[in-house]
Specification:
Mean pLDDT of chain A: 89
Largest interface: A-B, 38 and 41 residues
Oligomer: heterodimer
Structural class of chain A: alpha/beta
Shape of chain B: globular
Radius of gyration of chain A: 25 Å
Largest sheet of chain A: 7 strands, mixed
Strand order of the largest sheet of chain A: 7-6-8-9-10-15-16
Mean pLDDT of chain B: 90
Strand content of chain B: under 5%
Number of strands of chain B: 2
Number of helices of chain A: 15
Largest sheet of chain B: 2 strands, antiparallel
Structural class of chain B: mainly alpha
Strand content of chain A: 15-25%
Distance between the termini of chain A: 92 Å
C-alpha cells in the first residue's frame, strides 16, 4: 500500500518543476492576454492646461486609428492618460502610477521642463521610453541611456535664435525677465554672451513664479533702460509681467515664447498691452501631410506645436514597436532611429507606416512637427522657427528662419 | 538699488492692503471656529470667478461685482462648511484643517470644470501708472486699496457696533461664557463662515482686478494670507491687518537684499520668526 504521506511529500524534482511553472505562468499570461499599454502624461491642468487636453487627444487619435486598422503586433493598444497638473510632484505620482500600476512602456507628452526632469529618471530606470516636448537643454544631457527623445528644439537653440532676432532688430540694450526654471540661467548666459558680442548691455532678473504682481521686479529690470525685453516665463506669470511692464510706461520692444504669450493671454489682456509684442516658437511643418492629419483628427484649423509633437510621439512609438516586433520600452528605444530617419519610405502616418513595415520595407517618418530626426542624445535636428508680431490682439507671421 | 526703496514701500503698502481683506476672513474663521481653514485658497478663486461672471457676463461695474463675489464666495463658504467641515470639527482642529485642504482641491476643480484652465481678465479699462516724482502708482491699484480700506472699516464697525458683531467677539473670546449668556454659537459660526469666506472671495477678486484669474488664483495667496494671520496673531482681526502689512511690505522690500526668486521666503521667515519669539503673534489672539 502506498504511503499517503509520501504521496504528497515534495521531492527536489517536483519543487523545481513547480517553481518553474510558477515563474513562467505570469509571463505566459501576459503574452497571451495583456494588450499593449502606452501612456500620455500631459498638463491637463495648471499653467500648461491650455495645451494638455489637445496634446492627449492628438496622441489618442493615433492609437484609435491604429486599433481600428487591426492594432499593433496583433494586439489592441490601451492608452492611459494622466495629468501632470503642471506640477513636478503630481507628475512624479502620475508617472509612478503609469509605470507601476498600468505597466506602460511609453510615456508621451511631458511639457514643462521641470516635470520632464523630475519624471525622466523613473522612466529610464524602468526601461520606459519618454517622448517629451520640453526645451531645457539639460534634459537630454541626463544619463538617460537613450530613453528620452524630444521633438522640441532645446532651449539653447531657442534662445540663440531669439537673441539673433533681437540683434537683427537692432536692439541697443537687452533684458531677460522670467521665473526660476531649468532653462532660466542658461537663457541668461546665452543672451549675455550675444549682447557682449554685439557690444550692448544686458540685464536679467529671475523672479518667483505664481505671484500676483511683479511691479517691483519690473522696476528693477527697467533701471537699465533696455529697448528689447525677453520674457522667460509661462502664460500665467507672463500675463502679469506684460501688464506691469505696460503700466510702468515702457515703450520698447518685447519678445516672448509663443507658449507664454499664447491665445489665452491675448484674450485676457487688452490689445494695447500686447501691441507690437513678438513671439517665437519651433514651428510645426504646416505644409506636411502629417500636419493635415492632425488638423483633421482634432478638427481644428491651427494645430499648436505641442499637439503636433504628441501626434508624432504616438506615431513613432507605434512604428518603432512594429519595426522591432516588440512593444517594450527597450525595443522602442532601440528601433526609434530606424523609423524616424534613414533611407526608408517617407511616411506621414502610422497606418501607412505599418503597411510598409508589414511588407518588409523600411520607413522614414516625417511628422507634423518637422522631419523628426534625432541626434545621439535624443535632440531633434532640423527645426524651423516662426516669429510673429501681435497687432490688435492678433498675431501675424513676421519671419520664418 | 536704494533709489527704488520708496517705490518698493508703496508697492508693499498696496499689496499689504489687498492681503488684509482675505487675511481678516481667515483669522475671523479661526477666532470663532478654532481651526485654520485652508479652503480660503479656493474661496478666493470662487470669489474671483463670481466677480468675473458679474463683470464680464452680466456687464456690472467693479463695485457691484465685488458685492456679487462676496455673496457667492460667502454662500459657497457657508454650504461647504456645513457639509464638509462642521461634522468634522468635533474630531479636532487638525482633522478639520486637513479636510479643508481636501475641500479646497475639490472646489478648485469645480471652478476648473465650469471655466476651464484659461486665463481670464476683467472687463475694466487698463490705464498707465501715474507718476509722483520717482514713484509710480496705478489708479486701479489706488482704487483697489481704497476698496480694501472701506471693507476693513466696515468689518471693524460691524464687529464693534452690531449685535452679531458683539456676539462673534464673545464666542471668539470665550465660547463657554457666550453660551451661558444665550448666544447661539452655531448661528454665529454660520455667520462667520459666510462673512469670512465672503471677504476671502472679495480678496480674490481684488487681486484679480490687478492681474488676471485662473483656477489657481487663490492658491497663489494661501501662504501670504496664512503668514499675515500668524504674524498678526491667529484669531486677531486687527492683527491680520498688521500682519498683512508686515508680509506685503516685507515681500516687496526683500528685493533690496534678496534675489526676487526668493520672495516667498519672506512669508515663511516671518512665520518662523514670530512663532519663535512671539508665538501668540504681534497682537496676541484677542479677536478685536
Amino acid at each position: 500500500m502506498t504511503d499517503v504521506k509520501n504521496l504528497f511529500a515534495p521531492t527536489r524534482r517536483t519543487v523545481m518543476l513547480g517553481a518553474t511553472a510558477l515563474l513562467a505562468t505570469p509571463a505566459i499570461l501576459r503574452a497571451q492576454s495583456a494588450p499593449i499599454t502606452f501612456g500620455t502624461l500631459t498638463p491637463l491642468t495648471g499653467v500648461g492646461g491650455t495645451y494638455g487636453p489637445s496634446m492627449r487627444d492628438a496622441a489618442a487619435n493615433v492609437f484609435t486609428a491604429v486599433n481600428e486598422a487591426g492594432g499593433l503586433l496583433g494586439q489592441e493598444i490601451d492608452l492611459v492618460s494622466e495629468d501632470t497638473q503642471t506640477n513636478p510632484e503630481a507628475a512624479v505620482r502620475a508617472v509612478r502610477k503609469l509605470i507601476d500600476v498600468d505597466g506602460v512602456s511609453v510615456v508621451i507628452g511631458t511639457w514643462a521642463s521641470s516635470i520632464t526632469t523630475a519624471v525622466a529618471p523613473l522612466c529610464w530606470e524602468n526601461g520606459v521610453m519618454l517622448f517629451t516636448v520640453s526645451g531645457a537643454d539639460s534634459i537630454t544631457q541626463l544619463p538617460h541611456m537613450g530613453y528620452i527623445a524630444r521633438t522640441q528644439p532645446n532651449s539653447v537653440l531657442q534662445i540663440e535664435v531669439a537673441g539673433d532676432f533681437m540683434l537683427r532688430q537692432e536692439s541697443t540694450g537687452m533684458a531677460w525677465i522670467g521665473p526660476q526654471t531649468p532653462f532660466a540661467q542658461s537663457s541668461i548666459d546665452i543672451l549675455a554672451g550675444q549682447a557682449e558680442g554685439a557690444g550692448i548691455g544686458m540685464e536679467s532678473l529671475i523672479y518667483e513664479a505664481d505671484k500676483s504682481t511683479y511691479r517691483s521686479e519690473v522696476d528693477t529690470i527697467l533701471r537699465s533702460n533696455p529697448d528689447f525685453i525677453m520674457l522667460g516665463g509661462y502664460a500665467a506669470d507672463s500675463t502679469v509681467v506684460l501688464r506691469d511692464i505696460w503700466q510702468a510706461g515702457y515703450e520698447g520692444r518685447i519678445i516672448g515664447p509663443a507658449y507664454a504669450v499664447n491665445p489665452t493671454v491675448l484674450e485676457a489682456l487688452p490689445a494695447e498691452v500686447t501691441e507690437g509684442v513678438f513671439t517665437w516658437e519651433g514651428a510645426p511643418d504646416v505644409g506636411s501631410s502629417a500636419y493635415a492629419n492632425v488638423q483633421a483628427s482634432l478638427g481644428v484649423e491651427e494645430v499648436d506645436p505641442y499637439s503636433a509633437q504628441t501626434y508624432d510621439h504616438a506615431t513613432m512609438a507605434v512604428l518603432a514597436a512594429a519595426a522591432a516586433g516588440d512593444a517594450s520600452g527597450m525595443a522602442i528605444r532601440d528601433a526609434l532611429r530606424t523609423i524616424s530617419q534613414g533611407e526608408g519610405d517617407a511616411v506621414s502616418d502610422a497606418i501607412a507606416g505599418l503597411e510598409v513595415l508589414a511588407g518588409g520595407g523600411a520607413v522614414n517618418y516625417s511628422g507634423a512637427s518637422g522631419p523628426c530626426d534625432f541626434d545621439e542624445i535624443g535632440d531633434i535636428t532640423g527645426t524651423q522657427f516662426l516669429f510673429r508680431q501681435i497687432s490688435g490682439g492678433t498675431p501675424s507671421d513676421f519671419e520664418r528662419v | 538699488m536704494l533709489d527704488l526703496l520708496p517705490q518698493f514701500l508703496v508697492n508693499g503698502i498696496i499689496t499689504g492692503a489687498l492681503l488684509a481683506v482675505p487675511a481678516i476672513g481667515f483669522t475671523a474663521i479661526f477666532a470663532v471656529l478654532r481651526f485654520p481653514n485652508f479652503a480660503v485658497a479656493s474661496h478666493a478663486t470662487v470669489g474671483a470667478f463670481a466677480g468675473f461672471v458679474a463683470n464680464v457676463t452680466f456687464g456690472l461695474p467693479a463695485i457691484p461685482s465685488l458685492m456679487f463675489a462676496f455673496l457667492i464666495a460667502g454662500l459657497v463658504g457657508l454650504v461647504s462648511d456645513e457639509i464638509a467641515l462642521k461634522p468634522l470639527r468635533r474630531y479636532g482642529a487638525l482633522t478639520t484643517a486637513i479636510a479643508s485642504i481636501a475641500l479646497t482641491i475639490v472646489l478648485e476643480n469645480v471652478v476648473r470644470f465650469f471655466f476651464g484652465n484659461d486665463l481670464r481678465g476683467y472687463d475694466l479699462p487698463l490705464v498707465r501708472d501715474i507718476r509722483f516724482g520717482d514713484i509710480r502708482v496705478n489708479p486701479q491699484q489706488l482704487e483697489n486699496m481704497a476698496l480694501a480700506v472701506v471693507i476693513m472699516i466696515a468689518v471693524f464697525a460691524a464687529l464693534k457696533f452690531t449685535r452679531m458683531g458683539k456676539a462673534m467677539r464673545a464666542v471668539a473670546d470665550n465660547p463657554g461664557l457666550a453660551d451661558l449668556k444665550g448666544i447661539d454659537a452655531v448661528m454665529v459660526g454660520r455667520v462667520v463662515a459666510f462673512v469670512g469666506m465672503g471677504l476671502v472671495g472679495v480678496g480674490g477678486m481684488l487681486f484679480g482686478l490687478g492681474t488676471s484669474i485662473d483656477p489657481l488664483t487663490g492658491f497663489r495667496f494661501i501662504l501670504p494670507i496664512f503668514a499675515a494671520a500668524v504674524v498678526g496673531g491667529l484669531g486677531s482681526i486687527p492683527g491680520a491687518v498688521l500682519g498683512a502689512m508686515v508680509v506685503g511690505i516685507g515681500e516687496e522690500m526683500s528685493a533690496l537684499v534678496l534675489e526676487p526668486a526668493y520672495k516667498s521666503a519672506v512669508g515663511f521667515f516671518a512665520i518662523v520668526l514670530v512663532l519663535t519669539f512671539r508665538p501668540r503673534g504681534l497682537l496676541g489672539e484677542r479677536a478685536y
